[in-house]
Amino acid sequence: MFKPSIVAAAIALSIGLSGCNNDNGSGSSTSKDDLQPTLAVLKYVDPLIGTDGLGNVNPSPVTPEGMIQPSPDNWNPNNWGGKGSPSDYHHYLNQLSGFSTTHISGAGKGDLNDFAFLPYTDFHSTAVTMDKQTEVSKVGYYAVDLIETKVKAELTATDRVAFHRYSFPEGKDRKVKIDLQHELLEQYGNHSRSIYYKKVADNAIAGARTSNEWGQWQTVYFYAEFSEPFSGHMAYVDEKPTTATEVGLADYQGYGDKRDRVRDVVTHLNFGEGEQPITVKIAISGTGIDGAMANLHADTNGYDFDDVVADNQQQWANVLNKFTIKGGTQADKTMFYTSLYRTYVAPFVYQDVDGKYRGMDGKVHQADADFTNYSVYSMWDTFRAAHPLKTIIDKDRAIEYAHDLMNKFKTGGVLPKWELHSDYTGEMVGYPAVSVIADVMVKYPDAFTQQDFELALKAADVSANFDLTITQDWVPYKDAWNGDKRFTVMTRHGEYAEQHGYVPADAKKQPQDGGVAQDKYDELVNESVSYGLENAYYDWCIAQIAKLAGNEAQYDRYMARSQAYKPYFDLDKAEYGKYGATGFMRPKNHDGSWVNNYPSCAINGQGDPISPLPDGCNINDATSFDIFWPYRAEHRGQDFTEGNTWQWSWFAPHDIAGLKQTMGGEASFLQNLDALFTANDKADTSQGDMTGYIGQFIMGNEPDHHVPYLYNWTAEPWKTQEYVDQAMKEFFHPTKEGLIGNEDVGQMSAWYIMGALGFYQVNPGEPIYTIGRPLFDEVKFDIDGGQFTITAENNSPDNLYVESVTINGKPLNTHLTFAHDEIRAGGELHFVMTNKKPTMK
Fold first, then answer.
1. What 3-state DSSP class applies to 251?
2. CA distance linking residue 69 with residue 283, whole number of Å
3. Considering Cα of 759, then 541, then 658, then 427, what sign does the dihedral take?
4. 390, containing H or E segment
5. DSSP label at 609?
6. Exposure on the CB side of residue 239, measured as CA atoms within 13 A
7. Once rounded to an integer, what is the mean pLDDT over residues 556-584?
8. Run of H or E including 670
9. What phi and psi values does residue 35 have, to the nearest 5 degrees?
10. % the chain with pLDDT above 70
11. CB 333 within 8 A of CB 27
12. How far apart are CA 524 and CA 484, in angstroms?
């Protein structure tokens, strides 16, 4: 029999106490949560939302911004032609490969997932079936019964220590397998480069894993202690048993280290029969095993699992109670608070209790008392809403992010795009860190010194311009930790934009092939339209930093580069009338010619593909890029990133007036918006990141998250309210499939939060917001020692239009905007809602 779980009863009690409310699903009910204990808010968080479908999230009982994320990983028998292998967690899968220790929330990659622990009995140490009827996922707590072994597994965590509690059936030896390789091979090719393992004591083990996928030489160290000593110990190296208690390289140096190394270690521990559960505490570190040991020994919880759950939940209650809500349905509140929860999963603290952390140079540094090193910045996604949201609701943390990113420049020589455990992944487009830094600095300039502004400008300038000498120590793999990252971290797109006024699509081609490539480093000067458009915006952000720094020359330089989006737009009302548009952004060669011709024999006069193709029309996968068709989507490596021109034609958030002019004027801008939202949503997109269609607007991916709000710059702003309302209702649900696209480390959730609050920042770096459609009757959130209030009079699901709106008693500015500094303690954003389309502008 299992020992009864105290925490299960505690959780049931807390949920029972908080369950009294009068939500009736009408959208206008008033909650009585303010009469409940502070933990009452936790009932509105469901970590299983988005664990099926495309969300890619996991049910880890992580703390707010916690460094460690224990969570179940599945075994998928259908991968690798039926051979099976570990995979990220998906709720619909019921086989478990183990509970691994590190995770990324909602990205499209299978990196991390280090050190999988699996309790078992007898000899059943392979994948085991999860009893889904017993699975519990709450804030701070995860539990599931394992069918074949009759083991109950429970997880919780502190900031740096994961707690596992395993309850075993009577009369069985209590065993634990630790898989230090645990590669998610079936999806992404994550490989273990080197593994180290050591038995430290009769109740303690330690180790390290260096792996590659996004992170090329990403190393995590761990130290674990068990509540009882183990009597049996057996290690397997490359599937061969060994009696050794220490294997592998403790000081593996990464690329260039030619010593023999171990890449597969599995350890089995036997604790014998016993009535008590086995509790294991696992700490990690980026600096070394000593750092992991220090992190674990700094924890004062002993083995009191239930106390850890209670403390974890209280930490989350402190975060979530920043907001109080009236109105809305149970589903609305669940989506809101779960979304808020997800925005606090990362970036997370990534340094040891003594302040030591691994910098972007692979070296261990000591943090000053007022500095915190953070990790997992998915900035191509999160600069759009997740980081702007933090500047509103967590100013101090947003300021810390800016200082942390500048420090990453100091230790690594260049700003990261997508940082992972102090590793340059080089993932995604451009140099989005400048947006995050600029947005914080323009909103809170008094929080930074002149030296900070100058350092930020230097970091931005270096990161926006390819220079071999800056990273000369990286190449060829001179830095054993990071290797050659110039290909993806510092591409030459900016240099070409400055020279040509845009990034030529043939920049990656050699001159003899008609291109302008200079050397091998031009091989990745691709996705020219996406890079060109986004870099123009990033350059505008750099100009804002230059203004703060008082550097007029750099301001002028980057403002000029910020116009590099314009040459891509092909204004041809007659040609593109078949799509209802005046033109599209298109790839362009260095000589000014368009890369692909107007629709050929493969497309009819209505803009639809002809099937079957007429005789003599030789179009196939290899030649399809020789024609222009706005519905054709590209993933990576061609001219667009994860989308097609329908989505990318709108990326000039820093210069909406200029984009209007480029498109042919006010009327053309509105015409093109209408064409986007009414375009054929069934046309060939052939790209997995494109989900959540309203016409060809894509809610499930980031490039046009701002686009519904652009109607506020037209004569028909009520369409913003319609499409934001539609997106929130159709694409966000409190279900396992409730996220329409990858969560992407908080971005998808942050978009929902901003939509529910009723305002959005179209242009991070410019401290203004424009309105949408508020979801709740009243929202209050903490700010500067007080509260800011959002009220919606006459609010209901049918009254989705804004009849009037004021900020602190004053009408909004042009385009229904208001300034960031108007969100202040005691302030109020007040909406009057109606079911009629208003004429207000």
1. coil
2. 10
3. negative
4. helix 386-393
5. B
6. 0
7. 96
8. helix 666-678
9. -95, -5
10. 89
11. no
12. 13
Residue 237 DSSP code: E
257 pLDDT band, cuts 50/70/90, is confident
Question: C-alpha 277: how far from its chain's center?
Answer: 36
Q: Write down the H helix ranges in 95-193.
A: 185-188
Token pair belonging to 238:
């490359």
Nearest to 462 by CA among 554, 556, 340, 374: 554
Per residue, what are the HEC states of 673-719?
HHHHHHCCCCCCCCCCCCCCEECCEECCCCCCCCHHHHHHHCCCCHH
For position 4, what pLDDT does the model report? 35
Which phi and psi angles does 502 have, rounded to 5°? -170, 170
Tokens of 621: 């996968």
What integer pLDDT is reported at residue 599 of this predicted model? 52
Question: What digits encode the pLDDT tens for the residues 112-168?
Answer: 899 999 999 999 999 999 999 999 999 999 999 999 999 999 999 999 999 999 999
Residues in the chain: 841
Q: By three-state DSSP, how is residue 806 classified?
A: strand
DSSP string, 736-766: TT-BSS--TTTHHHHHHHHHHHTEE-SSTTS
**In whole angstroms, what is the distance from residue 217 CA to residue 425 CA?**
10
Q: Phi/psi zone of residue 299: left (φ > 0), alpha (ψ -120 to 50 degrees), beta?
A: beta
Q: What's the number of CA atoms in the CB half-sphere (13 Å) around residue 410?
A: 14
Q: What is the pLDDT of residues 769-828, one digit of tens each?
A: 999 999 999 999 999 999 999 999 999 999 999 999 999 999 999 999 999 999 999 999
DSSP conformation class of 658? H
3-class DSSP state of 265: strand
The predicted model scores a pTM of 0.93
What are 192's strand-pairing partners? 211
Under a CB-based contact definition with an 8 Å cutoff, are residues 507 and 516 in contact?
A: yes
Under DSSP, is residue 116 helix (H, G, I), strand (E, B) or coil? strand
DSSP assignment letter at 636: S
In this structure, what is the dihedral angle of CA atoms 98, 101, 105, 106, given to the nearest 10 degrees?
-30
Residue in the block written with tokens 């200082």:
403
3-state secondary structure 316-361: HHHHHCCEEEECCCHHHHHHHHHHHHHHCCCCEECCCCCCEEECCC
CB 741 within 8 A of CB 697: no
Identify whether 476 is preceded by a cis peptide bond (ω within 30 of 0): yes
> Cα(436)–Cα(451) distance, rounded to whole angstroms?
18
Tokens 């570990």 sit on residue: 86
Q: What's the first-to-final CA gap in the chain, in angstroms?
A: 68
Alpha helices by DSSP H, listed for 418-513, are: 433-443, 450-463, 486-489, 493-500
Among candidates 635, 620, 649, 727, which has minimal Cα distance to 687? 635
CATH classification code of 49-318:
2.70.98.10
CB neighbours of residue 233 within 10 Å? 14
- Cα(400)–Cα(411) distance, rounded to whole angstroms? 16
Q: How far apart are CA 313 and CA 320, in angstroms?
A: 10
* Torsion sign over Cα 422, 427, 431, 437: negative
Spatial contact of 92 and 736, defined as CB atoms under 8 Å apart: yes
Among 169, 174, 220, residue whose Cα is nearest residue 194: 220
Tell me the residue type at 447.
A
For strand 786-793 and strand 828-834, is the pairing parallel, antiparallel, or unpaired? parallel
Q: Which residues contact 446 (CB under 8 A, 6 or more apart)?
A: none
Given a contact cutoff of 8 angstroms between Cβ atoms, the answer to whether 410 and 209 are in contact is: no
Beta bridge mates, 209: 195, 220
Max Cα distance, the chain (Å): 81
| pLDDT tens-place string over residues 479-535 | 555 556 666 788 889 999 999 999 999 998 888 888 888 887 788 889 999 999 999
Asked if residue 298 lies in contact with residue 749, where contact means CB atoms within 8 angstroms, the answer is no
pLDDT band for position 227 (50/70/90)?
very high
| 801 bridge partner residues | 834
- CA pseudo-torsion sign 746, 752, 758, 759: positive
